[in-house]
Amino acid sequence: MRLLLVEDDNHVAAALSAVLARHGFQVTHARSGEEALQALVPEGNGFGVVLLDLGLPDQDGYEVCGKIRKRTSTPVIMVTARADVRSRIHGLNLGADDYVVKPYDTGELLARIHAVSRRTVQEDPVAGGEDAVLLGPVRIELPTRQVSVDGAVVQLTRKEFDLLALLAQRPGVVFRREQIISEVWRTSWEGTGRTLEVHVASLRAKLRLPALIETVRGVGYRLVAPAV
């Protein structure tokens, strides 16, 4: 996923960009409100999320958020030290999708980025509005929960399908192990890690495409779409 980071502090931006890159994001850094607005032309310019710091040198961050919302529907997460409820409500009323207060935990920030991304995917389904996801020879029928490879139906368990469908939401984007466990098993990471590994191995074997699901060491998994 491409992410636009709007942050005037170069040291903060460099550190955060490094973390985001390790989790599969392609980060573009804008140092001012005007630079951010230019980066979003035309129509969001392919960014999946805007991470917007409110303390900008040229414009008020709230004003920038309002301008972004007029130009594109790209999700915006505000980042600020203003923790009062009135500031949060003001930001959300201007069109922000979420609000993170400094200092924040990096894991929480990543979870919020993935959360707004998922909401966008649900509102604008994959595959041009159809009810199927196509990944090379793999076809995932979302309403019927059916998966086929080269036209042959592959029988998956409920959790195997849920795992594959989750990764297919964002091909190429790394999903953290903790996030997968939370989304698919609706529980915490503790004690469930081995279960995830078994399901990934089963999917690779059933689909006969071992390279489809890539392990990102120390982080999680991502789906690599096969070449057509």
TrEMBL record:
The lineage of its organism: Bacteria, Bacillati, Actinomycetota, Actinomycetes, Kitasatosporales. InterPro entries: CheY-like_superfamily, OmpR/PhoB-type_DNA-bd, Sig_transdc_resp-reg_receiver, WalR-like, WH-like_DNA-bd_sf. PROSITE patterns: OMPR_PHOB, RESPONSE_REGULATORY. This is Sensory transduction protein RegX3. It comes from the Bacteria. Residues 2-117 form the Response regulatory domain. Residues 130-225 form the OmpR/PhoB-type domain. Pfam families: Response_reg, Trans_reg_C. Residues 130-225 bind DNA. The modification 4-aspartylphosphate is found at D53. Keywords: DNA-binding, Phosphoprotein, Transcription, Transcription regulation.
